[in-house]
């Protein structure tokens, strides 16, 4: 007698993603890539920062992250319904950005993507885009983070998702 498949038990199939090198075109539905100037000087308005609660102050935070254990097992995502969220690597060589678009207040797993991002590129997640916390690939490191928030429950929403495994080319290095 054969074993029933997960589908026959009503469970969803396991989701596996291969992280790909990020490009501005592929990341665009989820936000923006922030590339530093190639020449000496200043680059203004490199991101379309949005704040849908105009009375909210801006928060600039420093975040220390550990190195990813690969393959990465994702069971939860977060989103910020009222603000873009920007991450700038300070001393991180490479990191993962795992994202999904919103569908009725939940991550749309059919739009879930994993990107490998190499410093000095920063990222700006669009308002309402689901994502995981920052994950460094080659060693622990720090990010500067910018978001409009006040510490209330409306700032960030967390949601458990169907488990997903993320593989990375970094596993082979």
Secondary-structure topology with pairs:
Elements lengths: L14 E4 L1 E2 L2 H4 L3 E4 L23 E8 L6 E8 L5 E5 L4 E7 L1 E2 L2 E2 L5 E6 L3 E4 L4 E2 L3 E2 L4 E8 L8 E11 L6
Parallel strand pairs: 1-15, 2-10
Antiparallel strand pairs: 3-11, 4-14, 5-15, 6-11, 6-14, 7-10, 7-12, 7-13, 8-9
Explain what this protein looks like in three dimensions:
There is one protein chain. The protein has 173 residues and is an all-beta fold. The chain has one domain (19-37, 47-172): Ureidoglycolate hydrolase (Jelly Rolls). It contains one helix and 15 strands. It has one helix at 24-27, and strands at 15-18, 20-21, 31-34, 58-65, 72-79, 85-89, 94-100, 102-103, 106-107, 113-118, 122-125, 130-131, 135-136, 141-148, 157-167. The strands form four sheets. Strands 2, 7, 10, 12 and 13 form a five-stranded mixed beta sheet that branches. The chain has a five-stranded antiparallel beta sheet with strand order 3-11-6-14-4, with no helix packed on it. It has a three-stranded mixed beta sheet with strand order 1-15-5, with no helix packed on it. Strand 8 (102-103) and strand 9 (106-107) form a beta hairpin. The longest helix has 4 residues, at 24-27. It is globular and about 45 Å long.
Radius of gyration: 17 Å
Mean pLDDT across every amino acid position = 89
Number of helices: 1
Number of domains: 1
Helix content: under 10%
The first-to-last residue Cα distance is 43 Å
CATH topology label: Jelly Rolls
Point out poorly predicted stretches: 1-10
Which superfamily, in CATH terms, is the homologous superfamily? Ureidoglycolate hydrolase
Helix-strand pattern: EEHEEEEEEEEEEEEE
**Helix-strand category:** mainly beta
CATH architectural type: Sandwich
Could you give a short account of the major beta sheet? 5 strands, mixed
So what's the oligomer here? single chain
């Amino acid at each position: 007698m054969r074993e029933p498949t997960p589908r026959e038990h009503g469970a969803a199939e396991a989701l596996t993603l291969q992280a790909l090198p990020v490009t501005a075109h592929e990341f665009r539905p989820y936000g923006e890539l922030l590339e530093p100037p190639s020449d000496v000087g200043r680059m203004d308005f490199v991101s379309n920062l949005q704040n849908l609660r105009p009375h909210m102050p801006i928060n600039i935070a420093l975040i220390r992250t550990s190195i990813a254990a690969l393959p990465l097992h994702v069971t939860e995502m977060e989103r910020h319904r009222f603000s873009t969220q920007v991450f700038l690597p300070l001393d991180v060589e490479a990191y993962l950005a795992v994202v999904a678009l919103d569908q009725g207040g939940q991550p749309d797993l059919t739009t879930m993507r994993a990107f490998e991002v190499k410093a000095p590129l920063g990222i700006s997640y669009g308002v309402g885009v689901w994502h995981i916390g920052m994950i460094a690939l080659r060693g622990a490191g720090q990010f500067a983070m910018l978001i409009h928030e006040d510490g209330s429950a409306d700032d960030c929403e967390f949601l458990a998702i169907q488990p997903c495994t993320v593989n990375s080319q970094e596993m082979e290095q």
